[in-house]
TrEMBL record:
It comes from the Bacteria. It comes from Terribacillus saccharophilus. This is Transcriptional regulator PadR-like family protein. It holds the Pfam family PadR. Residues 19-82 form the Transcription regulator PadR N-terminal domain. Gene3D superfamilies: Winged helix-like DNA-binding domain superfamily/Winged helix DNA-binding domain.
């Protein structure tokens, strides 16, 4: 099954990976900056647009609130997408190992 959002953009990867634990948007931004060692810094508009898109596709869902902030977490469908992407990337990486 080929989905129109696949392959995932770097931003989508980082968001889905961050949301393996429940987080609100600002915490997602901080986590991504940290896990990417500062190479990925998301603007709020980019993050919230991506969150809306991921939610629309059922890959993340709101799981509560922290003050007035919505807290999101990855769904089982989102986990399946991450697994598919992991397999795709592992295959690509394996091509680097092969001799010419």
């Amino acid at each position: 099954m080929k989905h129109k959002l696949l392959p995932l953009s770097e931003t989508m990867h980082y968001i889905l990976l961050a949301l393996r634990e429940p987080l609100h948007g600002y915490a997602v931004m901080q986590k991504i900056e940290k896990t990417s060692e500062g190479s990925v810094i998301l603007a709020a508009g980019t993050l919230y647009g991506a969150i809306e898109n991921l939610h629309k596709h059922g890959w993340i869902e709101p799981v509560g609130e922290s003050g007035r902030r919505k807290v999101y977490m990855i769904t089982s469908e989102g986990r399946n997408i991450l697994k598919m992407e992991q397999n795709r990337l592992l295959h690509i990486l394996s091509l680097y190992e092969r001799s010419e």
